[in-house]
Design brief:
This protein is α+β, with helices and mostly antiparallel strands. It contains twelve helices and ten strands. It is 43% helix and 19% strand. The protein has a six-stranded antiparallel beta sheet with strand order 1-8-5-10-3-2. It has a four-stranded antiparallel beta sheet with strand order 4-9-6-7, with no helix packed on it. A hairpin with a 2-residue loop joins strand 6 and strand 7. It comes from Acinetobacter gerneri DSM 14967 = CIP 107464 = MTCC 9824. GO terms for molecular function: dioxygenase activity. Belongs to the aspartyl/asparaginyl beta-hydroxylase family.
């Protein structure tokens, strides 16, 4: 019975994630995507959400975020002053965005589902003070997309938040854009957008200038207070484990402390794939089966006894 429940939850999560929206990932990719494994949580978040199921939301419906737009030039000044501190992770300690770094994307964390990063308090005190006055902001960073960069189609794993982008220094051109479930938005200086990052989205900068934005995770508003409390708890206790540092003064969450070892396994897998694709897929499915077996092992032992 325990095994059947696990399989049912996994299949339901897979179907939920794969069919969400008009645009879908390849089924083979969705099968192992992190959005599949957080599917049960995401079904809860969207099922009890106050927001409609659509890619983009009206920023004016979130008046608490207005001070960010009102002060966008001040925020831009602090972002520009960081110079080369907006950068890729240096030691495979940012699991959530690891694949983006290979395509030129860079970031400087301000906060991540917990207290503000000490490096941000030191280097961006005005922006940090502004963010700390808005409780619904659970994570924030400066994100850079250089000219020529491209982020492929993907889903973010967690539906307990929605994504806010505020243009700081952008090409102000339709050649620099993000597309969410087949709806396109081009960044402009001082303008903001809100979207649901659990829909398939991708971004590209075909302009000659670099794009820098303020990137925030906003806690999804829920229909009832008990659901809001669970959302807040999950973000604080689980999502905070994905915290990544800007420098040695910042904390590294548990997920990212483990990630460097998982990345080494991933790198070995890529090497095997280049050498022999058949062997790679055999190993991949064996590993996946082993994970399912480990999860189901307590029930198997109980049944045998």
């Amino acid at each position: 019975m325990y095994i059947a429940i696990i399989l049912f939850i996994f299949v339901a999560s897979l179907i939920y994630a794969h069919t969400r929206g008009k645009v879908h990932l390849k089924f083979s990719r969705q099968l192992f995507d992190h959005s599949t494994f957080l599917g049960p949580v995401n079904m809860f978040m969207t099922g009890f959400s106050k927001l409609p199921n659509k890619p983009f939301f009206d920023v004016s419906d979130f008046p608490e975020l207005k001070p960010l737009q009102d002060n966008w030039e001040m925020i831009r000044e602090e972002a520009i002053s960081l110079q080369n501190k907006i950068k890729a992770a240096e030691s495979n300690n940012d699991a959530g965005f690891n694949t983006f770094f290979k395509r030129g994307w860079k970031r400087f964390y301000l906060k991540w589902y917990q207290d503000t990063h000490p490096s941000a308090q030191e280097l961006c005190p005005k922006t940090v003070a502004l963010l700390e006055k808005i409780p619904s902001i659970k994570a924030a960073m400066f994100a850079e997309l250089p000219s020529g960069s491209y982020l492929g189609k993907h889903r973010d794993p967690y539906a307990g938040s929605i994504r806010y982008h505020l243009g700081l220094t952008t090409p102000n051109s339709d050649a620099c854009f993000i597309e969410v479930d087949d709806e396109r938005y081009s960044w402009r200086d001082g303008e903001a957008t809100l979207f649901d990052e659990t829909y398939v989205h991708w971004a590209q900068n075909k302009a000659d200038e670099t794009r820098i934005i303020l990137f925030c995770d906003i806690e999804r508003p829920m229909k009832w207070q008990w659901a809001q409390n669970f959302n807040h708890w999950f973000g604080r206790k689980v999502m905070s484990a994905a915290s990544s540092p800007n420098d040695e003064n910042d904390q590294t969450g548990g997920i990212n402390r483990v990630f460097k070892y998982l990345y080494a396994i991933h790198a070995k897998g890529r090497a095997i794939k280049e050498e022999n694709r058949t062997k790679y897929y055999i190993y991949k499915w064996l590993l996946f089966s082993l994970i399912i077996l480990i999860i189901a092992l307590p029930a198997i032992i109980k049944h045998l006894l």
